[in-house]
User: Which sequence fits this backbone?
């Protein structure tokens, strides 16, 4: 696979996936077509992007809780919608719940024909995902 890095895309006022550094992760700009930031309108204008898709929600659990509630409701209405919380927090790392990946800090985004793969800074890989939501820390309740 050949990848060209483009540093001209503006991420706007949103936190990139590397929230501690405030810098985009490797490939984050190239994966923009698959990523929403903050709290997208899952039940409204963004509905078709999430129904019956594999969705990863990236961020500390407290910051993405409203998004998880919205996606949980969508998954009840539209079977086939799967949600995975990807959090850098290591709490409960010994027994993570299904659909939850703990202690995972995103190092890179890798768009493929089958979806976006995520590489962790510890060398783990997860995915593929059809859609990604990166939570904004300043949107936390």
Assistant:
């Amino acid at each position: 696979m050949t990848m060209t890095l483009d540093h001209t895309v503006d991420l706007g006022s949103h936190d990139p996936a590397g929230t501690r550094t405030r810098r985009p992760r490797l490939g984050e700009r190239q994966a923009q077509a698959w990523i929403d930031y903050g709290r997208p309108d899952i039940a409204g204008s963004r509905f078709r992007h999430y129904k019956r898709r594999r969705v990863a929600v990236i961020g500390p659990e407290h910051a993405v809780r409203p998004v998880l509630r919205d996606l949980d409701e969508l998954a009840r209405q539209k079977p086939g919608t799967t949600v995975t919380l990807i959090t850098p927090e290591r709490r409960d790392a010994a027994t993570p719940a299904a659909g939850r990946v703990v202690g995972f800090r995103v190092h890179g985004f890798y768009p493929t024909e089958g979806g976006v793969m995520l590489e962790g800074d510890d060398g783990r890989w997860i995915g593929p995902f059809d859609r990604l939501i990166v939570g904004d820390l300043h949107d936390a309740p």
User: Anything to note?
Assistant: Residues 61-77 form the longest helix (17 residues). The chain has one domain: 32-139.
